[in-house]
Amino acid sequence: MISVVIPSYNRRDCVLALLADVYAQEGADFEVIVVDDRSPDDSVEAIRREYPQVTLLVNEKNGGPAVTRNRGIRAAKGDIIVGLDSDVTVPDRHVLANVEKRFRAHPTVTGLAFRLYKPDGKSEDTPRWWHPVPIGQYADKSFLTSYFSGTAYAFRREELIEAGMYPEILYMHYEEVELAFRILDKGGSILHCPELSVLHHANEVSRRSEVSVFYKPRNQVLVAVACLPGFKALQYAIPRMVFQFITACRRGHVKDFMRAMKSASQLIPRRLEKREPLRSETMKRIGALKHGLAP
């Protein structure tokens, strides 16, 4: 069975539209879990009223996407997790059935990365393309990757849990990057599947600017500290911090950048306590994936 896990925060109309699409799915046995992250709107009441069959969980306090997704994964009964952010729609009524087909066709694959379109259903959602290959050449191809977007994905639940799920210390942004690293380090693999697609309406939350000026530089440091071996951590973090600082200077966000670095320095001791550098074999695999390996 598939467990569809939907994190929701202050997006009542969006999550209701997504639920309509999910319940229109054909050819698959599934349950739906919505985890509300203490929305200030009436999302919870609307979901209870219009979709009483949904398993609805409400966080006691706002915990962020990583916490919210993890809670849904833990509550899931299915052996496959399909994660969908609340600002997507799913026009294809056979997406869930096709997820099952893909996992059957690739029994050693851990996860499936969906193709993300803009609302017009034709344009690629370029800002969410973090795969290690060019979007123009690979968006319509199946390939093994070191990344997936939390916007839309599918994983075998047990392997997702074994990899540690989303790192909750990051709160939001880069949590998928670290989880992908952990999955690969456990010997798993992630397959980009262009036939598994959603429309991403990018209903930006009010904290979106906070992502670019605070969470992004902070979490880049924290991921490097927790995941990357010695010199690789420096190679990863230093150029990014230089770029983020220059960008902050140009855009007048130096105070935000310094706030991000202060927060990172406060969290580094906690990251070091649980630091697990990726194996050398994993680093080689990540490098090889930049060449667009076929499944």
TrEMBL record:
GO terms for molecular function: glycosyltransferase activity. Residues 3-158 form the Glycosyltransferase 2-like domain. InterPro entries: Glyco_trans_2-like (IPR001173), Nucleotide-diphossugar_trans (IPR029044). It is an enzyme of class 2 (transferase). Pfam families: Glycos_transf_2 (PF00535). It comes from the Bacteria. Keywords: Glycosyltransferase, Transferase. Its EC number is 2.4.-.-. Belongs to the glycosyltransferase 2 family. This is Glycosyltransferase. It comes from Luteolibacter flavescens.
